[in-house]
């Protein structure tokens, strides 16, 4: 009796969430099996696996998958490693600690589009960017970052955007670390490095897992930074899956192929999630 | 030269003077207890000895070596913390061997030492467990084991029993006393619990407001306190402090006048000058309820029965309430008139500066 009332009361939200998920997913599956090109309206006949074939044999497909994974891995490594180091560094009290923390966190509040524009126009621009000015004042040729190292440029932008998130999580976690444990280690003869290695890192295992999981969700779908800065180019050098799907749907007006790409992206996300959870998820149980 | 010598140690926090000139000499193998109320500086003193706090001035010498500026890892001291501070990600065995592994001791030696310690503390069966799978008492034993395994010059204990329940505390107290007998290593122990201080210590250091109030064996402190603070701090229930109406020094005795009665106090025990307002101190067990008219008369306010004994709270005509120890079978009605006999031999006198001006009978 009590249980059925509970279920009854929960039903509206559960059903709403289910519809919210099921409808777009089934629409996407449906679109991926029909010819659906906005340039040829009315010819929506069933085509089977054809859309998938088009997407998988697209010249941009393998570069896009590779770029997606490289982008994901690089940004994860940069944000977690730098995040842990910077957090450990600013955990000790020093003069101006509050301001430094605010400055370290603030890039997270800048929207991705603005972030990309700042990097594109103020930092990496070969004529009046700060990097170019530094190169020139040191007597080197300025580098055109976005066309010479497009993917590396995107990685820098996205890392700058996501590092604050990692720092925010790690700093909070470090504040809950027991000081008596560190003092005990100090008396046991541990150096700063030993304390970091044997106490702080294990203490951060769970927050690192959380950061990796959450960042993975967002990093697989990076779009704004690419759209604003490199436009996926030159060639497919900075095209990731999200950008390739956008390319299919809104530049080539082929909703069918884009839907097939979308389903492939869902598959890829699941594979990545599977391995990530296996690799780092065991920390969650400790 | 003593084993651990502390000379004029001062500690300032930003605007707080935590330690105000500590001088203390500790001999090798002694069990020293620092005791005092919250905020008296006892933990700060211990942490300064450990090197976890830096002193503002003064010197600490251990075994003939100045360690004032030395990093805590180089002082050869081991500390047991209030929260135990076990390393949560390591097993009991790893916790015990951490210091040895950092010191790069040979594997065989580490294994042997860990085994010896875990056996003596009955931790053998727990070696592969993580700290959070242990009970409070077991964690406590691991923390002690982690200190023992290093064979340090001095053990430091920072209120190690305060997180345990009452029964376990009594048991661990005994184990600590046994451990000290077995190892014979110098131990410094901080507590706010005077029962721990009295039962464990060879010598007790009583701290008050960043200064040492008195140092002595538990019995010395109990029988011959230097000051009102020590007199009131040691002993449960507290010593009764009764202001005298008058104290007049005569040839053979000091005549104390208390609520119209007069008591003779031997002059030979007087060590200081009488002041305008002299206070008499006497412990509850040195007063006796008697049938006949005696030194004091009062009304029963309340009787606390503890089973083995009873404490009668008695209201004097001056309005002051004193506590008298009585036999467990005493039958007193509230408001009943009682007579109290004092043991003059056990009394102490305090002047208006709160200093004790009498010597105990033992000292004669």
Automatic annotation (TrEMBL), chain A:
PROSITE patterns in UniProt: ABC_TM1
Domain of life: Bacteria
Regions crossing the membrane: 9-31, 61-86, 98-119, 151-174, 207-230, 250-277
Coiled coil spans: none
Membrane topology: Multi-pass membrane protein
UniProt keyword Transport present: yes
GO cellular component: plasma membrane
Keyword Transport set for record: yes
Domain ABC transmembrane type-1: 65-276
Family annotation (Pfam families): BPD_transp_1
Subcellular location: Cell membrane
Keyword vocabulary terms for this entry: Cell membrane, Membrane, Transmembrane, Transmembrane helix, Transport
Annotated GO biological process: transmembrane transport
Family (UniProt): Belongs to the binding-protein-dependent transport system permease family.
Protein's name according to its UniProt entry: Sorbitol ABC transporter membrane protein /mannitol ABC transporter membrane protein
UniProtKB/TrEMBL annotation, chain B:
Residues covered by the ABC transporter domain: 4-234
CC terms in the record's Gene Ontology section: ATP-binding cassette (ABC) transporter complex, substrate-binding subunit-containing; maltose transport complex
Molecular functions per Gene Ontology: ABC-type maltose transporter activity; ATP binding; ATP hydrolysis activity
Coiled-coil ranges per UniProt: none
Keywords: ATP-binding, Nucleotide-binding, Sugar transport, Transport
Domain of life of the source: Bacteria
Keyword ATP-binding assigned: yes
Name of the protein in its database record: Sorbitol ABC transporter ATP-binding protein /mannitol ABC transporter ATP-binding protein
